[in-house]
Design brief:
Layout lengths: L5 E5 L5 H13 L4 E5 L6 H9 L8 E7 L4 H6 L6 E6 L7 H8 L8 E2 L5 H13 L3 H20 L3
Parallel strand pairs: 1-2, 1-3, 3-4, 4-5
Helix pairs in contact: 1-5, 5-6
Amino acid sequence: MANPLVGIVMGSTSDAKIMQPAAEALAELGIECEVRVLSAHRTPDAAAEYAATARERGLRAIIAGAGSAAHLAGALAARTTLPVIGVPVSSSALAGLDALYATVQMPPGIPVATVAIDGARNAALLAAQIIGTADPAVAARLDEQRAEMARKVLAANE
């Protein structure tokens, strides 16, 4: 891996299918990422170390997907000042509502941006927008992607 700018972290390998669109969206935009499986509950020390060293490894944002109690994004955000974007995963009997509430209800001072349940693609686009504030090439690719979306919608009217 050349120079990953975004970390994609999931609490379990069972979350991989939900988180895959994040990696795909970043690849479409030419943004390198790294993917890890870390649990806020089963591997708390490894998760804390990952977040604490993310900036020195060159990451600019972290996307964290977890279901049920969904403490992963918050646990990572507690250890870094990099932007953390939470993806609530619909892996429980509550269809992701429990994960959404756990991810979005962070205490003051430890923010986590939160996207829709299973919204990994939007998490990646948000990470790209954050990176694009300081990288004109990424911003230009995002602008072109948006223009292409608009062209497709308008073409559907033909």
